[in-house]
Amino acid sequence: QDPLVESGGGLVQPGGSLTLSCKASGFIFSDFAIHWVRQAPGKGLEWVSVIRADGERFYADSMNDRFTIARDNAESTLFLQMNSLKPEDTAVYYCTVGFGVWGQGTPVTVSS
User: What is the residue-level pLDDT of the chain in tens, covering all 112 positions?
Assistant: First the structure.
């Protein structure tokens, strides 16, 4: 079983919203900081956000005020609420623990 499995991606119009999920298994989810990282077509990895084990949250400047990261430790699930989406948010979104364990990614396309 994969330790991290993302879901919730899809096609959305500019200005729309999506909520991504990352279901974790096989480790004590609540003990770890979990990151969201994205990769746009033809580009490198871009860090998006992190939520630490103590709940403190950090965001890349370009996502601040539009994206919200959250975690449900009881369900071992990480979330990314994305609002006011822009075409430049089009990417595959990954969750990762320590940049050593990665999910398979979920694609997000922002287009009219």
Answer: 889 999 999 999 999 999 999 999 999 999 999 999 999 999 999 999 999 999 999 999 988 689 999 999 999 999 999 999 999 999 999 999 999 999 999 999 999 9
Task: Give the separation between CA 106 and CA 22, rounded to whole angstroms.
Answer: 9
Torsion angle of C-alpha atoms 45, 46, 49, 54, degrees rounded to 10: 50
Number of helices (H) and strands (E), helices first, in the chain? 0, 11
- State how far the Cα of 75 lies from the Cα of 79, in Å rounded to an integer: 11
Tell me which residue has tokens 């103590």: 54
Classify residue 44 as left (phi > 0), alpha (psi -120 to 50) or beta. beta
Q: What is d(CA 39, CA 26) in angstroms, rounded to the nearest whole number?
A: 25
* 60 contacts 46 by C-beta, under 8 angstroms: yes
